[in-house]
Design goal:
- The chain contains six helices and no strands.
- It is elongated and about 75 Å long.
- The longest helix has 20 residues.
- The protein has a domain of 60 residues.
- The protein has 108 residues and is mostly helical.
- The protein is 69% helix and 0% strand.
């Protein structure tokens, strides 16, 4: 789905901001939010705004439906589960963090 013009691009910016602020993603709620805002978009005809909002919501739908999984989670999901390697790494890290001996700490 493609956006049709400058109006759609302007409304896209406003809709993303409203969605981030917690406005529900439907035409009526977004239209009401635009009318309450201090935006010049509120002076556009209602039918023009609503049709543009429908295009915007169709355009944003794949973004909203995509799972919000970070890239590390996808990589870790494919890695085999090997607890012995994790335990060795843990032990090595803890040994590196421990002071060498109590006498070295007291001299500093």
């Amino acid at each position: 789905m493609r956006l049709q013009g400058a109006l759609d691009n302007d409304i896209l910016v406003v809709v993303r901001r409203f969605l981030a602020d917690g406005v529900p993603a439907d035409v009526e709620n977004l239209y009401t939010a635009i009318q309450r805002s201090n935006s010049s978009l509120k002076r556009k005809p209602k039918k023009v705004l609503q049709s543009s909002l429908e295009r915007i919501l169709d355009f944003l739908e794949p973004e909203r439906d995509a799972p919000s999984e970070d890239s590390d989670a996808a990589i870790e999901k494919d890695l085999p589960k090997d607890d012995s390697t994790a335990q060795l790494m843990n032990r090595a890290l803890r040994q590196n963090l421990m002071p060498a001996s109590p006498s070295v700490v007291s001299r500093i």
